[in-house]
Give the backbone structure.
Amino acid sequence: MGEQLFYFLIYPGMLFAGVVGGLIAWVDRKVTARVQFRQGPPVLQPFYDFLKLLLVKETVLPKRGSAIFFLLAPVLGLFGATAAALLVLLPALGITAGFQGDIIVLFYLLAIPSLMFVIGAMASGNPLSAVGASREIKLILSYELTFMLVVAGVILKSGQTLHMDQIMMMQQSQGAFIGSVSGVLLFIAALFAIQGKAGLVPFDLAEAETEIAEGAFMEYSGTAFAIIKYTKYILLFILPVFVAEIFLGGLTFTGIHILWSILKIVLVLVLMILIRNTNPRVKISQAMRFFLLWMNLLVIAGLVLHYLGL
């Protein structure tokens, strides 16, 4: 029991994933600032923001809303992100803790934070938060289908195995999935899907600071908002790791493989930051069309090419 709690709360779970995600958030903000000819924040700024919200700022409850669901939603979102972090990171660390079908469970766990953000926004009773929640729901319906098809494609390419360990082992013995045409198409779709999951430009519609002033998170403050920030840090770390595991030959954090695994994660992060800094925020109709039409067609093309042996 103690070992499982250590995995969940410390390493590689909540504390480790959140700290690494905070550093990635700093890199993202620093690069974005440089692109815009600004200085950018110091390296510890994401942690300053988190601690200020956690320890200094007051948690204000909205007058018109459900306080229970408003406060419970961020906690459940953090739980989902942390549980997903375990299933993503433990296989890479050589710790056998998965089970047959864990990639399916992981798909659902990664959807929990977004769903909890929607519930929290609706529980606030704020009309602008409701607008953000509405946008988030439409995005979820869009990118989750693409993400599900991508996971299905990975399962097919791995010989219909549902175990993360076996998916990575197969790539290490037979080559990374991205080494095929179908793998490249699935990788592109996965990259845009995790961009939407992480709430990064051009799919930051639910927050949209210039339009609805943090939207879904408008009424959040203090400890509750700190938990939301921390959840986003975790997602910013484990989503690139997950994509690297299922497309780039898996990850192995032993010996010289540590450097190679880090480079794979950095590659996915660079692509995410590149997308963020070269695209404006899109409309919700454009985002839905992008995923439901173009990305799904891309995934279907990848599946067809897989059956053709490409």
